[in-house]
Amino acid sequence: MQKLKMNKNIDIAIIGVGSTSFGDLFQYSYDDLVREAGEMAMKDAGITADELQAAWLSTAFPEIGVFKGRSGMDLAEPLGIFGIPVTRVSNFCASGADSIRNAVNALKAGDCDVAMALGVEKLRDRSPQDSIVKMMVELSHPFYQKGFTAAGTFAVYANRMMHEYGVSREDIASVSVKNHFHGSMNEKAHYRSSCTLEQVISSPMVADPLTLMDSCPTTDGAACVILVRAEDVDKNKHKPIYIDGIGLSISTGWDLPFFDSNHKFLSFQATKDAAAIAYQQAGITKPAEELDLVEVHDCFSIVELLTYEDLGLCKIGEAKDMIRGKATQLGGEIPVNVSGGLLSCGHPVGATGVRMVVEVASHLRGQAGERQVTGAKRGLTHNIGGPGAIASVIILNNEH
Predict the structure, then answer these.
(1) pTM assigned to the model
(2) From CA 157, how far away is CA 269, in angstroms rounded?
(3) Are 380 and 393 in contact (CB under 8 A)?
(4) pLDDT tens across 11-27, in order?
(5) Which domain covers residue 376, as residue numbers?
(6) Residue-wise pLDDT tens digits, 315-371
(7) Average pLDDT over the chain, rounded to an integer
(8) Rounded to an integer, what is the distance from CA 27 to the centroid of its chain?
């Protein structure tokens, strides 16, 4: 597969970030969340809505809940940004990251000078009978989704890692313990309390061996970034964060890898492919040494362990050693999910990828408060969606 190099002659900077709180936001409408995140990011960038020249809206599931996010209209109206192109992006859990990728590409192409990428999802305004699971069963792939849930998907990987690599039930639960500890310091997280191994393991079973506290909650929220070309940054006005690399990969179809006799259920090729693209663009050859913090897609605890290996943060089979040695806890060699991850922040699908970029940017700016990663200069965000088919990796730097 050809790895495309980012054009180093046209660097892109994030000059504004904003995020709502994540949680059960019944008191806020979809438009309210768009408005709050968008206005926060524009204020941070020191611009007005009139200065935006293009925008991308990330909403993964407009078909459920509030029935919003079918087109760019649902971003344009709350912010009053008419007369410019506004595009809706949907790419499962990589939707938010893909909205940023589209904004970056438009800036590089000279199609606009100031761009917005905003992700939002309202998943709590619906009954349990109107769930994502129900939607996927009724409308998605006729073989894959019949009785096979997201938890069931990742439980297969959990059991395989336990069998092949000696990962213990405690190792998996330790991811949740770590991320809930981090989330207790994040005022915008859905869950803001620490927990113990016993609480995670003894919580209700969802799909053996994954329990309720190994699973991220259903959540509302929005996040936004404002981007320009690096040459247009005013360092007297902005606190820019630069995009070193973006990789997006769809590496399998709906019915793979589950019907692939060669698949070992120990890795996600999409993550490896997306990381390879982003690493090449950023010139990264030793990620564990060259990254200061990482946000990964811990929709279930086991996914974080899988991602350590897929991103090359450790050797194959050594993810358990990273969690046992607390290497990925705040203060460790390479902190992972210092925000609290999806396990604490929740997962409003269209917003998650943008929220991760906002989080890493706050550390690179030195603005993350009590969970600040000391001296952070370079960070990475990772999303994976569908049946492990789609992945995005974004690398951010505070130096240019």
Answers:
(1) 0.95
(2) 13
(3) yes
(4) 999 999 999 999 999 99
(5) 139-217+243-397
(6) 999 999 999 999 999 999 999 999 999 999 999 999 999 999 999 999 999 999 999
(7) 92
(8) 25
Tokens coding 198? 């016993």
Residue 69 tokens, joined: 């996010």
Known catalytic residue at 347: yes
Query: Within this chain, do residues 164 and 207 fall inside the same structural domain, yes or no?
Result: yes
- Domain CATH for 52: 3.40.47.10
Distances (CA, A) of 290 to 193, 298, 397: 31, 22, 11
Reported as a pLDDT band with limits 50, 70 and 90, residue 139 is low
Q: Residues 180, 190, 297, 347: which is the catalytic one?
A: 347
Under 8 Å between Cβ of 289 and 295: no
**Given the residues 93, 112, 216, 224, the one annotated as active site:** 93
What total of structural domains would you count in the chain?
2
Domain shared by 156 and 116, yes or no: no
One-letter amino acid of 54:
A
For residues 115 and 247, state if they share a domain.
no
Maximum separation of any 2 CA atoms in the chain, in Å: 57
* Structure confidence by residue, pLDDT tens digits, 199-256: 999 999 999 999 999 999 999 999 999 999 999 999 888 999 999 999 999 987 655 6
Question: 103's torsion region: left (phi>0), alpha (psi -120 to 50) or beta?
Answer: alpha
Residue 210 CA to residue 206 CA, distance in Å, equals 6
Q: Which residues, in sequence order, are CB contacts of 296 under 8 Å at separation 6+?
A: 303, 304, 307, 308, 311, 336, 337, 341, 381, 382
Distances (CA, A) of 369 to 150, 181, 365, 372, 398: 34, 15, 11, 5, 17
